[in-house]
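Hi P.,

Sorry for the delay on this. The queue was packed all week, but I finally got your sequence through. Input first:
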Amino acid sequence: MKSLLTTVCVLIAVSLMAGNTKEAQSSFGKNFLPIWEVSTNNALDVAKAMPEDLYDYKPNDSSRTFAEQMVHIATSSKGIAEGFITGQRSGGESPKASELSKTQIIELMEKNFAAVADMIAGMTDAQANETIKVFGGKEVVRYIAVMFIQDHLANHRAKANLYIRMNDIRPPRYGFF
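Then the structure:
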């Protein structure tokens, strides 16, 4: 009986540690999805760390508000992924950050990050290694273009993290994959 209980506990722990990582079809996806998951979790931690009453904060007139940074992270991640991975954009306008609550913004981020993970997981090795055109007609291998999505997310997450510091709030701990 004790052995069965131990086995069940181990299986539950393994399931929980697996998180939301999708089963990837390509070697790139298998290696990159854990990085994507940590990066998006870091971004969500930043979104959660800022109090809702400071979501309209921006350091100067030419900057985005904190809420706009978070919405931009969510919508651009999905939009860029659609363009680079599927070759198509679903279109539509980005929601107005000022009209969304903190909870709605976090839900948008979670939904769009999951959609990107699904697109990455669905790529085959042939697709990952295919040469595609990106910004300005530059040609790169698709998996390199996909890595840009995470870099772009990290850039805007770092900006938002500074907004937190500028309001004397301790930012969330940075996670490493």
